[in-house]
Amino acid sequence: MSRYVIVGNGTAAIGCVEGIRFVDPLGKITVLSKENHPAYCRPLISYFLEDKTDPKKMLYRAETFYEDNGCEVLYNVSATALDPETKTLTLDSGDTLSYDKICVATGSSPFVPPMENLENVKNRFSFLTLDDAKALKKAVKPSSRVLIIGAGLIGLKCAEGLRAITKNITVCDLADHVLSSILDAKDAAFVQKHLEANDLKFTLHNSVAKFKGNTAIMQNGDEIPFDILVTAVGVRANWGLVKDAGGACGRAITVNEKMETSLEDVYAAGDCTESTDISDSLIKVMALMPNAYMQGYTAGINMAGGEKVFDNAIPMNSIGFFGLHMMTAGSRKGQMKTDIQKDSIKRFYKEDGKLIGFVLIGDVQNAGVYTNILRNQIPIKSLSEFNIKKSPSMATYDEEFRRKTLESVVK
Amino acid sequence: MKRVFVKEEWCLGCHLCEYNCAYANSGLSSMVKALQGKPIFPRIHVNGNDSVTFAVSCRHCTDPLCVKSCISGALHRENGVVCIDKNKCVGCLTCMLVCPYGALVQDETGTVTKCELCTKNSCGTPACVAGCPNNAIVFEERCEE
Ligand SMILES: Cc1cc2nc3c(=O)[nH]c(=O)nc-3n(C[C@H](O)[C@H](O)[C@H](O)COP(=O)(O)OP(=O)(O)OC[C@H]3O[C@@H](n4cnc5c(N)ncnc54)[C@H](O)[C@@H]3O)c2cc1C
Fold first, then answer.
1. Which of A25, A193, A244, A267 is buried most deeply by CB count within 10 Å?
2. ipTM associated with this complex
């Protein structure tokens, strides 16, 4: 009987369990969970702030998941070292575990750039875990003045959640526009207007030079007094286990299409890995939940002796703020086509007759048709229609694909 | 497992399937009360172009991308049927970003709604199929490739 160990207990880990069990109903699975919770939906922590969900509803799988899948979970346990020679893992308790196949699904940790006097700020929070969100929710009062450092996806989701509690929220970022990882400046301005209409205040192209008690002295000289500070600047892959064991890493753990690392019988999946973005062939950390699941599932199948590759990863985001939805996928390069309406923006990016990226703000209906065209690199010429003014649909595809989809069982 | 399939050459483009779907899932006994004067959110949609129309609803894929991509754990499979737990859905719309067929929609609650083959309403068998005047939509078992 095979012995599987999974380090981490997030989305990638659950994918891995499901992948293993798809092939091997019997092998022993041990899951190591640093957090003292069954796997939950990490992106929902902002919805938890605004009471749109609760820890029970946030569970990623049924309460009986681990039992149903014959998994042992060790809570409050961290793995500290991996030895691929002896195939053992050392835990922070000092115990060791041996494995036949191991999957490192350790996610990422907040990265906080140095800021003078930051360590003396009392009410300081990260926003990555359920425990972070619980602590933050407890600390914030309707009268609280909140300063959020970072106007990226996590910082803004945090701001949206906190808006249900307090109106006094300022977000700062070194970048000159919000959501700089997914939007260009023009589109970001459109989104920022909407955020400001919902009472968020911004100071961009600006960062904290130092803290004086509960006042942030900004680079431009402004002083921002606050009661609560949230740092949401960025994250770094938790790659230590693999890196320290001599495994290949770039900006995160290097994996191939089967999710194998360079170490024998060591797999990795999720936010701690980097892989190829097929829209521009560059190696990236695509820290997204769907990718984490798919990678974990792929790792699991291969660990259990099955065969699976995950070779069409693309960065993609579906995110909404105060009712305004936006979806982005692939890269913003190549030839751009734009349609701007009063309440919506659509942009397509093409190269060599193929769709390599899109940005949709406000009108996101059936966007999955575009994602599919992008992911499967379907030539635009082969489509029945591709009209930026119209929502995509099954009518976008060619007749053969459409008939096959509507007349037979699809995968 | 039985699924809904569409014969596009028989589709009249009458949109009755959309109304029957919205009515079946309204939980109301009166069709008028369920549909009159308000926006409806059917789980099947007539798509098409100048020369052809066809109804599109969830394909209940054997390896559904929406379930794998769901960030709230709301989408899941029950005996092969892709179902959504509206209680868990937060309306992030990631499923709409990944479904290649455009089978999911956001309804008036802000959460996502989709075809569950009428397994969760009082019909028990798809209302779109039962009400299609030209048998362009069928409910049957076809083999997986
Ligand atoms: C506020 C917020 C909003 C987000 N919104 C979205 C969104 O809308 N859409 C989207 O696609 N993605 C979103 N994400 C990203 C998404 O949450 C991640 O991509 C996903 O959770 C990655 O899963 P994972 O399993 O790789 O890592 P994680 O979920 O981070 O799980 C890793 C786990 O491993 C544990 N661990 C680490 N080291 C060890 C060790 N040595 N021993 C034992 N355990 C260890 C960690 O404590 C952690 O619990 C969001 C993230 C945040 C924080």
1. A267
2. 0.95
